[in-house]
Each structure stands twice: as structure tokens, then as C-alpha cells.
Amino acid sequence: MLITFLPEIILFCCLPVMVLVRIFRTSATPKTYFTLSKYFMLFSVLLSIILYNKSELPEIYDNSRYTTLFKSLVFLFSFVWFFLAYRWFLHEERSSFRYFMLGICSLICLNVIISAHNFALLWGALAINAVMVYFLILRRLDEERIFVVAHRYAGFAAFFLVLMAAGMAIFYHRLGNLNYRDVFSFLHQSTDIPQLYLYASAMILSGMLFFMAVAPFHFWFLDVVRYSILPVGGYLTLVPGLAYFAAFCAMIVNVFFPIYGHFQQPLIIFAVASLFLGAVGANGEKNILRLFAYGSVFNIGFILISLITFSADSLFSSFVYLLVYLMSMLGIYTVFLGFKSQGRYVFELREFAGIAKLKAYLAAAFLMFLVSLIGSPPMLGFLGKLSVINNLVLEHHFYLVAVTLLSLILMANAYLIVVKTVYFDSPIMNFDRIDKSIYICLTLNLILVVISLVQPRFLMSGFERMPIRVF
Amino acid sequence: MFFVILVAVKWLKTNKMLVNLFILLSLLGGISFFLPKDKYSRFFSAILFAVTAGYALQLVPAYQVGAAEPFVFHWIQYKSLHIDINLSANQRNFTGLLPLGIVLLFALFGNIFSRQETRRLRLGGLMCVNLAFLLLLLCANNLIVLMMSALLIGITTLYVINDYEAKKTYIFYDLISDMALFTAFAVIYSQFHQVELSVLTRYAREGEHIPLVAGLLLLSLLIKNGLFLFHNQLLSFRDLNFNRLIFLSFSSLPVVGILIYEKALPLLSAFEYSRLIIASAVVLSAVYALGGTLIYDDIKEKTLCFNMLFWAFLYALSLSTPQFSFSACFPLFLLMLSLNGLIHALSAAASDEIYMSRMGGFYKKLWLLLLFFIFWFAVFSAEILSWKTLSPLVRFEQILFVFAMALALSHFLREAFFGVTQADEIVSARLKILPYVDCWLPAVLVCGWYAFFRPEIPFSFLIMFAVFLLLLVLHPLRRLAHYYADEELQLSEFFKRFYELVLLTPITVLGRILWLTIDFVIIERTIINSLSDVIKFLIRISQKIHQSSLLNYILLALCGLGIIFLYVGR
Amino acid sequence: MSSNFYLLSVIITLPFLGMLFVLSAKNDEKTGGRNVYNVSLFTVIANIVLILRLFSRLDVKSSALQLVERFTWLENPRIDIVLGVDVFSALLLLSIHIAFIIGFIAVRHNRIQQKSMMVFALLFLSQLTGFLVAADIFSFYIFFEAMLFPVFMLIGIFGDIRRQGIMYRFFLYNFLGAVVLFLATIILYNYQNGAVEISKVASLSFNGKIEHFMWASILISFLSRIPVWPFHFWISSVSSSIKNPLVFIIVNLIPLTGIYGLIRFLPQTFPASAAFYITALEIIGVVTMLFIALIGFINRDTQYKFFSYITVYYIMYMLGLLSKNNLIMLNVGFSFFSYLIIVAGLEFVSSYIRSQQEKLELGTEGLLCPVPRLAFVYSFLVLAAIGLPVSSLFLNNFLIISSLLGNNFSLGITVVCALVLSSGALLGDLYRLKDNSAFCPEKGCIMDISKPYFFFMAFIIFVLIASFIRPLWFLGM
After folding, report:
1. Does residue B569 belong to the interface with chain A, where contact is any CB pair within 8 Å?
2. pLDDT value of position C74
3. Alpha-carbon span C332 to C320, nearest angstrom
4. Which of B125, B230, B255, B531 could be joined to B223 by an S-S link, Cβ 3.0–4.6 Å?
């Protein structure tokens, strides 16, 4: 039991330590909390890797290569983002205690979400994570609208959690437990599944879709990213998505696969809706955070469309796309941290005008990540695009290919508006000096991108087949 | 330079006479291009003349014994395309080269002394290069070399023309002419994939588009010869100095035209309307040229009209002679060159005056020149009228041509030598009995040569000569002198305006309409703007959907749930 | 034939490395941007040396791909990058590099955004080089799309006031084309269970619908680059908007990629399913050709006239290639060699005149009167451009047009008409600049090109003449 949850427990230990530091250390700075988080995260991820297949409760909590891969990625992205967030707090001269506390709590939940093989456990982790996110959203103090946004998020999250709970209750009523395996056996063995259980499955899945911000359940994500502080927006864009993706795939493959045919059509509709709402929305958006939030919705649509058939290839291609997209988004958010004018971070598109003339390196990195997001070769994004489209062609979904590529053109247009503003418009303001750590992160990210590009095997080899272990 | 040339000649001494000539001329052209343009230009021009003349003299014995040396250079050797450049020395090629060489020597000689020439050396070089290309044309035994040399001569001509308006007029005519030739040959090649000249005869038998090819060839040739409707380019040479004018008239496009015509005769004769077209062009050109010699005030224009009359006559001759050969007309060719030289001498004597209306009464001081003119006419008419082997039709044509020349020249001489003097006093004072030897000497030498070697004098000559003298005395067309004052007529821009109206205006209007309709209305306004509007419309919808209103969010969520439950419930 | 020394990879990489060097150069205002410029120029010259080395290793009599290099890029899906070169692509490589040198010389004194210009120019060169030596469908597609990005940036930086709309047009047309090719590439890949060498694409067999779809995709993607109606609009807008000679040259190399794509993909004998598209392509091509030539003839903008000329020739090459004749293919290659150099040279001269004109606030009429060196170079290039026998264009045009006439007579005649119009447009422009009857600036008012520039252009002229005398002199053919 202890071994099964050991990484999470270690991570949990970070919380009281942080509290103690807060109480007893008079000069606790963001660096202190980041350092604490860093070591606990490192320890936790090492344990996750070492104990990658140690699970004493396999029926409710799975530790496998699949979960370890996603957990490691979650830790990796969290680590980088927490580092950048700590620099943000340092510059803003704000307390980061709550942020790191909530962040670590959220990480624990995400770990559980990834490994959960029981609906109750999943629901619990989702619920706690939603609460953490709610409080994270509320970290912004200078924006009145944040309360509306946070409350709406809380309200909708609660609604979908209730919906999920209702669905789970139906299964529980029938099976007496909520283990994935049992639900799968039930669905697999029944020749004619009663409508009720299909609805119950739909309730559970719609909850997952809500948290993944798949259109038309994406609305919360746009406002949350737009109005919350940058470390929160970045965290919500980069980290939970990985866990939700892992949980969603595990759920479909391990539970709902026998009845997946019923969900394929709605998922296609949602994927296409995500693609188009994301792309069109981004085209009309003037706030850069919201624009990239639309971009994230678009990318989720791309991933979902690749997942449609839920074959080994589709899972692999969507995973590649997810990874590539997150790397690019990490770069984009790193760049955001550098765009600061007179002590204020700028997020309006017009304020980005002519940055290339003032901050050439930052603008160049921004450009590379944007091109990567468009999926244009030779940038890394191409690998993701290639992987997804190849999979769709392989499965003869030609009309989906057409739709996807059309939406990609629309999305690219939105990104090009950003490129145009950054490179070809005249600057309207001066920018502050940029923190060196941002340069370091960007450079590391770019090196990773270049290496992955020249030899994708370095990135993919070995663990490229790992997500398929879910089968 | 001299040393370089000597070395080059020695090095190239391969006993391949025409090849050596070709290389020598090209080298001379190239070297003169790099020499300083102002310093010692007369000296260098004299060397140019001397070297060319020296080599020409070397060729004379070979020409006399009819030396034959085969030489073929394999230029292009692709799998399915072989192009050879044949520069074999044989009697035919020597005969063809002789008058052209004489023209070059005349021009190079004139170039040494020319007072109006500012780029003497450059001109000399161009003349040499021009002859090198003419040599290629003469010896050409395939379509590509024929066309290539014609086009290259077009380029040298362009550079010889040093007047903007003339250049501008020339280049567009030449473009049309070259493209017509190019297309005609391309059509021929497309059918047989053969480039040898014999393919022209084959095409005349088996060609698929004979009317088009013949039409294009005729168009090209008529333009090159500057016959009626295409005479503007020829007349535009009036703005050049005499030396350039004479050189271009006898060593560039008209010669190219007639040489290609000679080679393309089998094909042209296969087209039923060729004769009609050529005949019409000849008649109209002759009428126009005769009119020009009588009416134009500018003696350079008159000269060009004399030349036009000559080229028209050659075409007329080709219609009536089964085996037309340009080489048979070389005496005439050289005599026409002499006439140009004499007119140049007249102008030079009158302090380079070029307007007839400002001449008159020159007989007192230029009586010797007048005698040269009369002598020229005598030799010229005797030369033409002594052709005995001609058919009755040709007989009629030659008499008509001599009569036209008599009419035009008598009018010209009467105006210049016996007309009421309107020359400037200084001009009159400067008149000398024998001015500027470079202008008249070569002309007189040619006339003397033909007069000396003429074995007999035909009776018809005496009649024509009498008619000429009569016309000179009576001056029946004296009233035409009034037209010198008619500016509209003298400018002769009717055809320029005609082409602008018939060709350029429709193209301009059509282009503008297409530009506006297709580019702006269809693409910019319709396709691109529609796409842009569609994207804007979608953005508006998206913005409405994503307005931060709770109701919208609820509706969206319900919509999503509705879809999923709807599908699951089916 | 495999190669131990990765010459092709080096040729692709060298401009990229040059770009990195340029990127790392600090803003050298003190030297007037000379570091950046010299590095760029040196990079291209070094690449030319390598290309000449490549020629020495090439069997010019063979039409097969040579110096083949193969790398495994991705394992899932398995993608091998294959590079190879034949005489045709090697010729293009050389001419493109020469065109780039001309472009670099033309922007020697350009101080505005020189670093950006060189960075994107070298990046483009690297990608274009990669495109020309790509031997498999994936690397072909990768370079096909990748080269759009530097061009987009260059248009954005150096376009005039209308650039915003133009950039989007460029993007819309080209990205659409690239996406369509991507689709075709993926289909080809999947139907063959592995990366396909381009030379084998034509011989693959598919079922009816897929075959139709694939050929349509391939043709549309290449057409998006070639200025045929309605795809011509982006390039016409860009051409008349760009005043920077290097950028103009680069933009006008984009249609080359479309033509090259057609050459590489189209089979020797078209499948029945492609016949309809080919006929449609011919009709659209020839109509566009005439249309653009007409507009070029009436338009007074020199850049548009160049565009018109460039378009007419590109479409002529395209139509020539559709005849699928080996001799014509080879001739198109030779012709491209001169054509690209001529276009670059013309743009060089034209940009010089434009800069003088703007500096001195003069009209265009008579500008060439007091500048004999410039006038000579311009005249020569125009004469070469219209196909007179001073470059390999003459013979190549003859063979291409005769082939067109042989295949479809009326089409051939229309092509000739378009050629006449576009040549007329160029000549008209030349003689407008030489018009001494209008205002003719005094000597000294407008500067002639310097002697080093003149000697450089004289060398270019020599290369052109050499290409006429001996089309493949540097190959010893």
C-alpha cells in the first residue's frame, strides 16, 4: 500500500514542510518554496521511475510504464514551469507560498488521476484538483472579474463532477464497486447493454471532456487563462492536460472500449468543434493569453481527432502531438514572462507590436515556437502534425483529414497575425530588461527542439511506444 | 593591338580561310571594343581597315582559283539534336562574301575619315563583327545557324544605330521579324525534327501548316527588307550619319532578308498566295519609294527610298526568275552602294547639309560630282539593261526600274545642282570641286570597274540614257518641290499612327479591361474579399458564442451534453 | 551510387551554418553591416565551389539520380531522408546560387534590416537547396513547405505599404498548396508502406479515386506556386510590392519550386486519370500566360513587367514539361540556368536605377542616357531575356516552342504571342529609360555603376554568352 502511493506521499510531505517553513522562516522567498518543491518533486519522480511497476492495489491504482511516462512528463513540465513561476513571483515581489502549496496539491491529484483505475478515486482526485484550481485562479488580486471567472469555473466543475458522480453511481448500483476492470467486464460481457449504462458512461466521459476543455465545454478554460495570473495560466495550460489525456485514454481503453462505438460520433463532433472554435476564435482575439487559450482548444481538438479510432497508432500519434504541442506552449509561455514593460506584463496583442526590433532573441524564439505550433516543417510541430494526419490517412478518415487541415490553415492565419504584429508593426512601447533565467529556459527548449528535429529518435526512441502500453 | 592581331592571325593560320576570316573579324570586333574610345581612334580605325583589307587581299587568289576547303564545326551534339556550323570555303561562299566584304571595306574606309562619327572605333568593331555573322549566314546549312546569324546581325544593327528614335523603331520591327522567323522555323522543326536547310524543301512538300509558315517567313523578310508597310524602320535610319546609314542599308537586315529569302524560296513558292503578297509588296514599295525620292526633303530619306526601290526590284526579279540568286545581282548591289556614296559626297560637300530645300545651284562648283552621278547612271542602266537571258516580263521590270531610277535621280540632280539656290552663303562658299575623297572615291572606283569590264553597250541603254538626260533637262516634276515645305508629309508619321491605332490601342484597351476585370473584380473583390468576409463572419459568430455571459456557457455545455446524449441514445 | 562524403548534405547545411554565423554577428554599425554581408557572400561563394565540385563527381550522361545519401530520420512512422542529384537539379543549384550572388551584390549598400535579410535569405537558400536535392517524397515536402516561412518574413519586412494584404495572400495560396502536397505525401507514404523515392511516384498504381485525388492534390500544390490563374495573384502582388532586389529574386524563385515539382513528380506517360487535369492545366496556363503578358505590356511598373516576363517563361516551361520529352526536359534545365541569372541581373540593374531615381527624385524617362555602363548591362540582359542568341535561352526556347507546336499547334502559337508581348514589354521599358527626347539627367547627376560592379556584371554576361556557345561548358559537354 505504502509503496504504491510512495511518490504521492513524498510529494504530500512537501506540504507540511512548506507550512513549517512559512511559519518558522522569516525570510521565505519564492526561491525557498521552489527549492522545496523542486527536491520533493525530484524525489517523487525518481521514486515513480524506480517503482514504475509496483502496485499493490492494481484494481484501483495502477503503476505501469504508461503511468510512469505521464507522471514523469507531468513532473518535468511542472518543474520547468514552477521555476519560471518562482522568477515571476520574485519579480512581482509577491508571496508564492499559496501558489506552490496549491500547485503541489494539484500535482498529487494529477498523479492520482493518471494512475486511478477506480472511478471513485478518479472522481476524488478530479474534485480536489478542481478545488485547487479554483484557489489558484483566485490568486489574482488586481482583477475584479477573477471572482466571476473562478466562481463560474467552480460552478461548472461542480456540475460536471455531480454528473460524473451520477454516472458512477449508476454503475455502482449495478456492480457494487467502481473498479475499471469490473465495469469493463460488465460492458464487455453484455451483448445488449441497457441504455441507462450508456447514459452513465456519457455522464462520466462528458465530465472528463469538460476538464480537458474540449469544445463545447471549453469556455471556462478561455476565461481562466485570460484572467488568472501568468503562473496559473501557464500551469493550467501545460500540466493538467497531460494527466487528463492519460486518464481519458486509460478510461476509454480500460473501461469503455466495448461501447466506444457509441461515443465515436460525438467525439468527432467535439473534436471538429474544438478545431474550428479554437481556430476561428484565435483569429478574432486581441488578448494574447486568450488567443493561445483558443490555440490550446484547437490543439485538444487535434489530439482528439487523432484519438478517434483508439488504436495503438492513434494513441501514439496523439501522444506525439501532445508532447510537441506542450513543448511549444512551454516556449510560448516562457516568452510571455519576458514581455514586460514598465514592470507590467503585457498581454494585449497591439502591445506586442515591433517587439522583434527591441527584443530580437525573444522574438526569434517566439517565432520558432509559433511556426512549430503551425506544424510547419522544419520545426518540431511538423512531427506532431505528421503523426496525426498519417494516422488519419492510415485509418481512411479522409474527410477528417480535410477538416483538420482546413482548420489548421485558419489557425495558422491567427498565429501569423501575431507574427505580423511582433515583426512587422512599429513598436509602441519599451520593454524592461529580461531575466537571464528566461533566456536559459528558452535556449534549453530550443536546443531540445533542434535535437528532436534533427534526430527525432532522441526524443521518441524508447518511450515512443510507452503510451501504447495502456492496451 | 596590331601585335595582338598579328599573333592571332598567325596562330589561327590553319589554312581554313573562312574560319580564319570569321575569327579575325570577331577578334577585331572584340579588341576594338576594349580600346580607348577617343584616343587615336582614326589611327586604330586605319589599322582595322588595313588588317581587314590585307586579309581580304589574301583571299583574292583563293577566290580566283575557286579554292575549296571543307570545314565543319560540331556545335551541339545532343542525342537527338545535332547542329553543325559549316564554314567551308567554296566558290559559292566566296561569291556571296565578295560584295559584303567590299561593303565592309568601304564602310571601314569611310569610318577613318568620317567627320560626324563620334564612336569611330566601336563602329568599326561592330562592322567587323557584323560581317562575321553575315559570313555565318551565307554559309549556313541549317535552320538554327541561319536564324542565329540573322538574329545576331539584328543585335549588331541595334548597336550600330546610335539614334534613340531610330533604335526604338527598329527594335520593335526587328522583334516581330525575328519572332516570325523563329516561329516559322520552330513549326518546321516540330514536324520533322530536322534542322538541315533541305527540310525547307521537304516542308514545301509535306508541311502541315504551309500557309502559316510561309506567311510568317514573308512577314519576317518583308520587315527585314523594309518594304512597304514595314518601311518605317528603314526610314528611321535617316537620323544616322551617312556612313552608318550606308553600312546598315547594305550590310545588315535587308541583306539578311534577301539571303534568307533566297534560301527559303522553295518553301515560299509552295504557298499559293506568296507571289501575290510579294507582288503587292513590290508594287506598293516601288510606288512609295519613288514617291519618297521625289517628295522627301531629307536626302537621307531620299537615299533610303532609292535603296527601297532597289530591294523591291530584287523581289520583283525573284518573282520572274525561276532560279533567283542574290549573287547574280551583286553588280547592282555594289552600284547602289556607290549611289549612296555619291549622295553622301554631295551632302558632305554642302557642309553636311541634308535638306534638299536648302540646296540648289551646286553645278558651278560641284560639276565633277554631277558628272560622277551621270556616269553612275550610265553604268547602272547599262548593267541592268545588258542582261540578255531574261524573260520578257523581266525585261519590262528592268526597264520600269531604270526608268524609275532615271526619274528619281534626274529630279534629285536637277534640284541639287540646277535648282534655285537656297543654300546658306557659308555652305556655298565652302563648296569644292572634289570634296572628301572618302565619300566619292570608292563609288567612282566601283563605277569605273563595271564600266571598264562592260563588254558591250545595249541599244536600250542609249534610249534610257537619253530619257534620263531629257528628264534632267526638262525637269517635269519640278512642282513636287512644293512638298518640301509640307511638314505633315515630311514627318511621315502616318504609318506609325496607323500601327498605334490598329495594334497598340486594342492591346492596351484589352489589357486594361482584363486587368480590371480578372485581377481586381474576380480575384481581389470576389474571391479574396469573399474569403476574408467569410472569416470575419465566422469570427463574429465565435465572438458572440464566447461572450463572457453565463447563459452562453450554459447553452454551450447543454449543447455538448445534448450531442453526446443524443448519439448515445440512438 | 553511394557516397562516403556527404557532399549534398554539406551543400544544404552550409547556408544554414552561414545563417547561424550571421545571427551571431553583433549589430556591426561601425562597419556598416559589412560582417553580416561578407559572411553571407562568402557562404554562397563557398557553396558554389562545392557545387562545382559536385559537377566534377557527376556523370553528366546519366539521367539517374547520383551521389545518393540516405538517412533514417524517423522510426515511427519510418521515414528515410534520401538526397540525390542529377544534371538538371545540379544546373538549377548553380544558377540559383549565382542569382543569389547577384542579389547580394545588389543589396550591398542596403543598410535597412540587413541582418534579417541575410538570415532569411540564407535560410531560404538552404531550404531551396534541400528541395532541389530531395529524392524522397518526405524530404521533398519538408523543404517545399519550410521555404515559405523565410519568404513570408522577407515579404513582411521588405514589402511596401500594402504588404499586410500581400502577406496573407502569399500565405493563403502557398500554405494551401503545401497542405495539399502534405496530404498527397501521406497518402503515397501509406499506400506504399514506407517512404517513396520521387522518381518512383509516377510508376505507382492506385485505385481510381485515390489516383484522381492524388494527382489533383499534386497538381494543385505545384500550381499554387506557379503563377497560373488564379494563383498568379499572390506573386503579382508581391512582385509589384517588393523593391528590394534580393527579396524580389527570392520571391520569384518560388514558382521554380512548382515547376521543379512537376518535373520530378509527373510520369513519362500520364495515367489516364491525369489526362483531364493536364488538359485543364494547359488551357489555364496558356490563357494566364497571354493575360499576364497583356497586362505586363500595358503596365508602366517595371517590377510588374518583370513579373509578367517571369510568369510567361515559367508557364512556358511548365507547358514544355507537360510534353514529357527528354530533350525538352534537358533544355528546360539549360534554359533555367540562363533564365534565373538573367532575371536576377535584370532585377539588379532595375533596383539600381530605382534607387538612383528615388534618391534624385527623377522620372524614369532617359535615366540610362548618362550611364553607359549601366545602359550596356541592361540592354544586354534585356536582349538575352527576350531570347536573342546571347544566352542558352535562344536554343532552348526554340526547342521548347517547337515541342509545344508539335504537341498542340494553337497552344504553341499562343505561347509565341505571349512571348512577343512580354518581350515587347521589356523592350518598351528599356527604351523608356533610354529616351533622350524626354528629360535626360546631366552626367554626374545620376551615378553609373561602379567599375567593380560593372566587371562583375561583365562576368555574368560572359557566363551567359558561354552558356550560349557551349550550353554545358562546365561539364565538358
Report:
1. yes
2. 76
3. 8
4. B230
